[in-house]
Amino acid sequence: MRRNRAEQREHNRRALLDSARHLLATQGVNVPVDSIAAAADLTTGAVYSIFGSKRDLILAVIEEGVHEHIKDIDRLGQSDSGLPALLDLYARQVADGIDDDFHEEARLEVLLVLLCLDDEFFRRQSLRLQHLQRDALISLFTGRPVSDGSDGPSQRRVSGDEAALIASSLLALSSGFLLRGIPGDHMDLDSMVLACANLVHLIGDGPTGHGPTTVAER
């Protein structure tokens, strides 16, 4: 069936995002625009018509990955699990996604780091996207029972500050495992899942827990 104009534009946009993601991961940020367009079976004019610039196309690739991650986090919010189970579910969800395409995920992670080092525009955009992911995780964890099991009125729940601490640690931990897996050409997914699950110990345990341990308290 023939596509209308809006459908054709969305089809072209999707094709360019897919080709750009693959070529950026395999060839780096210097991949020519015409190579991206050719891989999508389009002209370079389509790139500029839909995205405006190569930089905006790269940003769109990065943003799409972040927004998919946020959707995954939001889906976890439908669970009534306590913090330990949520941490385990999140880590396994991330592991499943990375294991499907480790090389591409790892290379795009490195690419973003390099872009942030060299380009103030990408540094600002990366910070914005990090905040979006962190906010989604804070929303997921805040108010959850600290322990799995009983959900009565005496069950201590995760505070906003505690959720923020766990969210920042969780993002750094999963990203660190991804980057450390590059020399060995594979990520230690089991270790990552275990490490993420153990972030529950960043905060107090049980209804009378004492919250995060500060440096001064150690």
From TrEMBL:
Listed InterPro entries: Homeodomain-like_sf (IPR009057), HTH-type_TetR-like_transc_reg (IPR050109), HTH_TetR (IPR001647)
Protein name: TetR/AcrR family transcriptional regulator
Positions of the HTH tetR-type domain: 10-69
Presence of the UniProt keyword Disulfide bond in the record: no
Record flagged with keyword DNA-binding: yes
Keywords annotated in UniProt: DNA-binding, Transcription, Transcription regulation
Pfam families the record matches: TetR_N
Annotated TM spans: none
DNA-binding span(s): 32-51
